[in-house]
Hints:
Elements: H1 3-25, E1 29-48, E2 51-64, E3 67-71, E4 75-82, E5 88-92, E6 97-101, E7 106-112, E8 117-122, E9 134-139
Parallel strand pairs: 1-4, 3-9
Antiparallel strand pairs: 1-2, 4-7, 5-6, 5-8, 8-9
Amino acid sequence: MNKVALLFLGVGLIIAGLWLSASAERGKELNFTVYIRAYDTTIPEATIEGVMIKNVRQFNVLNEPENLVARVGDTVNIKIVNESPISENYSIEGYDVDTTLKAKETKEVKFKASKPGSYTIWCKLHPKNIHLPGSFSVIP
């Protein structure tokens, strides 16, 4: 075999190896546990831009972790644990994920990450300034 043929064979094997390793990464099963937690805080006193405020109550709800990442082709399993004292919702725009959980309830959702992009995770029951949104990112 001549040197050119060996070179092409070597390059072909490298490309095939890269393709196999890249395709092996796709189609994994990912398991996430997301905790919905409420934070109720009272600020006894503060001065903001020269204005004195007293006894301000702040209530926020967070999904922890708030951001999830998958690859196209992955199967995504999300166990959602609502630790909030009230009902909450967990929805992912662009995907068929929309579930409401009562206080202290746990549910599981499963779906295929089929579309690359970034999608908002949010609660359809409460304003986004109360139940803070997250993101679901799908990379090609």
